[in-house]
Amino acid sequence: MNPYGPSVTRLIDEFEALPGIGRKSAERLANYILTSSRNEALGLAEAIRAVKDAVRACGECHNLTEKPVCDICSDERRDHQVICVVEQPKDMNALEASGAFPGVYHVLQGRIAPLEGIGPEQLTIEALLRRIRQGGVRELVMATNPTLEGDGTALYISNLLANDPVRITRLARGIASGSVLEFANKEMLADALKGRQSF
Amino acid sequence: MSTEKTPALVIRQADFSNTSRVVTFMTREFGKVACVAKGAKRLKSPFDAALDLLTHCGIVFIHKTSGALDILTEASFVHRFKPYAGELNCLYAGYYIAELLDSLTEPHDPHYRLFDESVPLLTRLEETPNWRRVVLRFELLILEETGQLPSFDACALCGRLLEDSPPAATVFIRSGFICPTCLPDATAEDGVSRPVSAGTAHILRVFSEDSNTWQDLPVTSAQAKEVRALMNLLIAQTLGKRPRMHGYLRD
Known about the structure:
The structure holds two protein chains of two kinds. By secondary structure, chain A is α/β, with parallel strands linked by helices. Chain A has helices at 6-16, 23-35, 38-54, 89-98, 125-133, 148-160, 186-194; strands spanning 56-57, 64-65, 79-86, 103-107, 139-142, 167-170. Chain A has two domains: 6-54, Helicase, Ruva Protein, domain 3, CATH 1.10.8; 77-173, Dna Topoisomerase Vi A Subunit, Chain: A, domain 2 (3-Layer(aba) Sandwich), CATH 3.40.1360.10. Chain A is built from seven helices and six strands, in the order αααβββαβαβαβα. The longest helix of chain B has 19 residues, at 221-239. Chain A binds chain B through residues 19-20, 114-117, 119, 147-149, 152, 155-156, 159, 185-188, and chain B through 12, 14, 17-18, 48-49, 52-55, 77, 80-81, 83, 86, 88, 91-92, 94-95, 98-99, 244-245, 247-248.
């Protein structure tokens, strides 16, 4: 027997479909909605509607934005000759928080993961190539995740651009600042040694 | 519940929650094992950098007898797979090995030889751009280990050794070679038939032998092409579908 009516059951089902939410949590959230005021509940519904209506991919970098071109791409003070390639908007936010990158970004919307059925055609690689081949790009910084699939995606893109006059670099990797050598794994140490710099 | 320790290769991973992942390992002692790795996505997780795809690692896990997912408690990094510099096919060949290990083996069914030979084959993909040779050796190895390798030495019907076979032979995808005398007796159960050259038949025999002769066996580009077409068909028939990586592995 269904203890709730069809509308409450639907709400629970919708909450349960969210990442990290199980049946119990979904029921708790539905109960919160039921006991909250009409304004509060409809405010949440309206916020979801607004975000789905207003947010789209930036026409330049494919970051999420409410404008045709995002604030970073339309900022004239940034170096548009240097593009940093990231997998997801959250990676771009992390790099932006560092305040160390003066260039612009390109969001791939994922990484090539053939075993999960994600191929290059499902990413924004074509748009990146068009952007570079329009001219004016001096350097491409590969900031995909330092995993086999992230590195594979960077390798795929760099192979496509092998004959284009653009410098391709990738983020340095190795020992984290503040850590100690004794506890770094051999992979980190090997990367750090390979990427050592002059004082 | 028991705590187990074994060398392992990461063959698949999927997000489980914001910080946890489900990681499938091909282990030496316990075969294919799927574990929940709680907190695996956190920067300071107890799993080091050991949970990346195709990483060779040592793991400790709690085996759940109830049929639920096992729980990963420790993972220590041994070697990270790094395909031959700039060679995408070597990367895709590594993915293909992971795909076949995942789809052709059963959970908790150990294959010691398969594990022991997979690790050096992955290492070869780091050292040489010749991925075709590694892939063929691995395909024949996993088919043999899972009991699905067709007969390449003797006629599958009469058992006569085929060393003195005519210059060209006919291979049946499910059974293997069938000698000219038995050819009229072959049925649909023996699978799709393919004529192959004597050179290709020799390559299949050598690559499926339990020795290192395959490493130096000369293979012409025409033979490599013929072998690849045959193996693609054989693997697709064994799996019941075309592997995802077949679409990526090409010159």
